[in-house]
């Protein structure tokens, strides 16, 4: 082997060795979401209390599910109570959350919801608002916007309105339908997970979230994969994280 060939061999060898190192530096591997790194959490029905809740400043507590009655079809839509009983919580901010499977709410549902929120407020808990957890498809965003506008008018002005959102809203949603949420919702918490696991291609959606023109938080699943892109921290719309707690 001549000196030139030897030099090329060494250079190629070093390049092969250094390339993985460069890739690790440029694109760091995702790490598991550690709840102790955060102070805002969803607390869902059936999830056991964890020590990390002692550091919580913000809690989103599930209080009910709005759906069509399966056990009693004649009753139409009903609110099924879930989650913690009304009690005094010490957190700085508490959001009362309702999981919706339908937007066809009768007046009784609104009355139950507002009554429940008031009971939490009367307990001494710092209730800052209501969150609606509804998996609206992009094609249903306009209808969802009308529903939220109506709900906003029903809520006392001291309460804020939060919603969960799907990552593809910013990519495939009708801009006009999304724009009607401005002035109606105070935040969108975008879910980067499905079930118990992070969505594998979440990173491809995150750069587009600013297109919504709405304040947003990013929802993470405890123990899921996550690598924060710098663009997220640089966004003027990004408001932090909410971790969905789950049992081991």
Automatic annotation (TrEMBL):
Q: Name one Pfam family in it.
A: DUF3142
Q: Which UniProt keywords apply?
A: Signal
- Asked if the Swiss-Prot or TrEMBL record annotates the protein with the keyword Ion transport, the reply is no
Q: Which domain of life is it from?
A: Bacteria
Signal sequence interval, chain numbering = 1-31
- What is the name of this protein? DUF3142 domain-containing protein
| Species for this entry | Pseudomonas sessilinigenes
């Amino acid at each position: 082997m001549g000196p030139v060939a030897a030099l090329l061999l060494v250079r190629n060898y070093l390049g092969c060795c250094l390339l993985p190192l460069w890739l690790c530096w440029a694109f760091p591997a995702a790490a598991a979401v550690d709840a102790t790194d955060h102070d805002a959490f969803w607390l869902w029905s059936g999830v056991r209390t964890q020590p990390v809740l002692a550091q919580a400043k913000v809690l989103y507590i599930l209080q009910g599910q709005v759906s069509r009655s399966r056990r009693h079809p004649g009753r139409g839509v009903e609110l099924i109570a879930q989650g913690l009983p009304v009690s005094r919580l010490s957190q700085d901010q508490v959001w009362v959350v309702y999981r919706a499977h339908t937007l066809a709410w009768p007046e009784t549902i609104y009355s139950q919801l507002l009554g429940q929120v008031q009971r939490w407020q009367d307990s001494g808990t710092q209730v800052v608002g209501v969150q609606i957890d509804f998996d609206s498809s992009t094609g249903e965003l306009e209808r969802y916007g009308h529903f939220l506008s109506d709900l906003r008018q029903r809520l006392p002005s001291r309460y804020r309105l939060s919603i969960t959102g799907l990552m593809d809203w910013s990519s495939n949603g009708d801009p006009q339908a999304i724009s009607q949420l401005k002035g109606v919702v105070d935040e969108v918490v975008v879910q980067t997970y499905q079930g118990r696991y992070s969505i594998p291609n979440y990173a491809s959606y995150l750069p587009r979230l600013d297109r919504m023109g709405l304040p947003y938080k990013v929802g993470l699943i405890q123990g899921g994969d996550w690598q924060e892109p710098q663009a997220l921290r640089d966004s003027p719309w990004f408001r932090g994280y909410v971790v969905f707690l789950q049992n081991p």
